[in-house]
Amino acid sequence: MRVLMFGWEFPPHISGGLGTACYGLTKGLALNGVDVTFVMPRASGDEDQSFARIVNASDVEVDTRYSSFFTEAGETSFIQVNSKLVPYVGLDDYYNVINQLESGLMHEEVSGEKRKYLFSGKYGQNLMEEVNRYAEVAAEIAKQEEFDLIHAHDWLTYRAGIAAKRISGKPLVVHIHATEYDRSGEHNRNDIVYGMEKEGMSAADAVCAVSDLTRNIVIEKYGIDARKVFTLHNAVVPSDKKIEREKFVDEKIVTFLGRVTFQKGPDYFVETAKRVLDKDPNVRFVLAGDGDMMQHIISRVAELGISDRFHFTGFLRGADIDKMFGMSDVYVMPSISEPFGISPLEAMRAKVPVVISKQSGVAEVLQHAIKVDFWDVDATADAIYGLLHYPALSKLFADKGEEEVNNLKWEYVAQKLKVIYEKTLRHE
Fold first, then answer.
1. Residue 102 has what pLDDT?
2. Element (H, E) at 255
């Protein structure tokens, strides 16, 4: 089985859990006999290609006569033809024209104009433009590659998946790692992103959600047919080496690792820190990450008078994450709405006890983690205090947690995904 997979990032250059999940999943699929061609906007050349072939979308030439442009109000396509007319047509008409050109039913005399798009592969101001150009490149790639099925990760790649499906006629699987409801909440929803998410889910032949929590959101908030939505929990990539437990301070260390955004609940981490420090001032709190709430968090730490106990590392990746876990005594994930949450698994793999919110997908699969409501800072503080001051309790969660997480393998997740692929292909 051959899969054409569209992602936005891939280790070692990642901005969050999406790239980590793509890495683990492609590796797991390879172990299950599935060949994956992984397309990303901009590859650096240092990606691990031992189990998936990486295609750099920035290296792919497209014919700009067939460029598709998507607007906020809907979608239109621009086609340059040998005429004074400049037609703006619907997406279906766009593909009909391409099919007629390629079959010889329509003749065009304009020589092709090939060009490459240089993608940043980031999440900056030109994100929407890159998402739409990525779809153009995806159509070109789909014409060149041999594959049985298309798999698109998160809303950034859904239009690429749809374009590849229209060109190839192959079935499309979309993967939901997070929804707009997780990122922005019920009342601050970005309708453009929501629309693109719904567009991708509706066009897909199968939808994979990273938790039951996310599956329910997909069905209830997006109106997607429950029969084509499958829960596919994440896993963790085994560490190649034992993470060294090394500390440079005498105090206990409590760590938050993630984007400093509304969804991740960093403000609850700060309020919890204050309550713990009121009981025990000899604790250090580390916030590892970056995001749009950073300035607010820094100001709140100062207001609470705990700046001397609080440390900001900025965004960490790779070996620096392992080093941080090697210094940590407790890991906390107070997410308000977390579709899954891979970082607790990485902490447990490093034998760090974890406290996670009940409002997370990972809470569905973990037994040896302390689970609290994200808003209950008193309960979270009590859990942290207990793990810091009762060595037997800490050791229990560290040992049992490591054992548990080592049984959550991407190979097993990929087995389930392969079954979804096979069901989708049977209904092609």
1. 52
2. strand 252-257
The series of mean pLDDT values per 10 residues for the chain, 428 residues long, is 95 83 95 96 91 94 63 36 33 46 45 76 81 93 96 95 96 95 84 94 98 96 97 85 76 94 94 98 96 95 96 89 93 93 92 96 95 97 98 96 93 97 89
Topology of the domain comprising 252-405: Rossmann fold (3.40.50)
Domain with CATH 3.40.50.2000 in the chain: 2-58+124-235+412-426, 252-405
Report the distance separating Cα 135 and Cα 283, nearest Å.
49
316 contacts: CB under 8 Å, gap ≥ 6: 257, 288, 289, 324
Q: State how far the Cα of 276 lies from the Cα of 286, in Å rounded to an integer.
A: 13
Query: Are 86 and 78 in contact, with CB atoms under 8 Å apart?
Result: yes
**Residues paired with 285 in a beta bridge:** 254, 310
Q: Which CATH number fits domain 2-58+124-235+412-426: 1.10.3720.10, 3.40.50.720, 3.40.50.880, 3.40.50.2000?
A: 3.40.50.2000
